[in-house]
Amino acid sequence: MTASAPSPSTVPRSRGKRVLLPLWMLYPVFFAAVYFSHLTLLRLPYFWDEAGYYIPAAWDFFRIGTLIPVTTASNAHPPLPSILLAGWWRLSGFVPSGTRTFICMVAAAALLAVFRLARSLLGTPAAVATTLLTAVYPIWFVQSTLAHADIFAAAFTLWGLSFYLQPAGLPRTRIYAATLFSLAALSKETAVITPLALALWEAFLLARDRNIPGLRRAHIGWIAALLVPVLPLAAWYAYHFHRTGYVFGNPEFLRYNATANLDAHRIALCLYHRLLHLTMHMNMFVPVLCAAATLLVPAIATRVRLPRPALNAIAVILVANWIAFSVLGGALLTRYLLPMYPLVLLVCVAQWQLRVRSWAWIAALSAAALLAGIWINPPYAFAPEDNLTYRDMIVLHQRAVAIIAQRWPHATVLTAWPASSELERPELGYIKQPIKAFPIRDFSLEEIEKAAADPGEYDTALLFSTKWAPLPGQTDLSRRNRPADARYFDFHQDVRPAEAAAILHGEIVWQPPPRHGEWVAILRFPRIVDAGLPLR
Length: 536
Prior knowledge:
Elements: H1 14-17, H2 23-37, H3 49-64, H4 80-92, H5 96-122, H6 124-136, H7 138-143, H8 149-164, H9 172-187, H10 193-208, H11 213-227, H12 230-244, H13 251-257, H14 264-279, H15 285-294, H16 308-327, H17 340-355, H18 360-375, H19 389-407, E1 412-416, H20 419-424, E2 436-440, H21 445-452, E3 460-464, H22 482-488, H23 497-504, E4 507-510, E5 520-524
């Protein structure tokens, strides 16, 4: 960062002692590691928001070249992921394994940015630790094969930060950072939060250093560069308004993700949840608490410190995203904070390295805890996409849809999203021929009772768990939050298959054993059909 570059003594000493491998030589290693660690996930069909928006939007661009999706409601998300996915499908073919391989490539590029950033600030050992911890963090691990816009935005954001935060920046780094942050904003609109927060930070530094000509020019240059991403994002919204009449997507999407969230109590709850997401969720508490504990230990004089300007900028980025995502977004999805987790881990590693001689043991303990979180569920409710619970959900849905397609291909199936899309859209990878769905909002008691009042509209039901939560009798740290979660975050209790069968007057014809708390069931309804000839 030209504006406040550290003195030469703060630059990692490894620079002067050894030749650093160029990043292009490291990328194949990173990609191979990501690809082979996700090998069992590459053939899974599309899941949740992949199936609900991102794959249909890219599929529309792939087939007919439209940036505004026509087979799903337009949410005004920027089009870069659709363009990149469609371009890749020209090479790989439109198959889930090809898509997931491409996402592995994007995830590897993002990890390379983490490595570059950490190496420039702390040296190679810390860079290796930070990159490894990021790669095995459950949320990052899972998102490394899912075709959500968040992994694209995270990759471009982290590369932009690797130029902005590098200790000895050149004037052209502003161009690189502006370009990369712009690509991040064109991947997902909320990625603009980071450069805008940094622009405000540079404005504060400008006011502080206004009497120092060199620093004043540097701050002004960075402010201009960091505001550039607003321009392509504004151009996209102008185009979207021209084509649809809406700036920020359809009115329901805007209401759910923005205007309905402006409630002081809800924002306070979101601030609490988002703070836990950044510091505690999925065993992140292990590296964070270890870093907090090391603050009680004196710093080692010979160790490399995280430069104060970089630490301040990282703090600004984390606080800005913490606050912004406590206001924006109807669902508290952890993937929205995807580029923030490497920054939290970077700060943790910096403290370990500075204060503990054998800090590699702390890194190993943290890595073991994060690895465990990939398979072991925490004692509270969470979204399936936060660890490999999502795979259990997909496998159960595959089996259920296959049974319906084989036994009752002409059925009308009562179900909820995303299973309704899985039945009706063959391109999602669950079926070859579409099956008619009768969708309801969810499997809450209220929705099941509404469906029971209209039994003639369906003859089959596909029920499933829509979230993971500890079973009754198990430790559940989220139980006391249920009333607020139901009010503000659409939390509901799924009606179990036996109870639903009783309410709907149906019969459970297939219900496999649950997979790590995820369940699915098929119900059939014997209907009496009047086959008599009409009277003349």
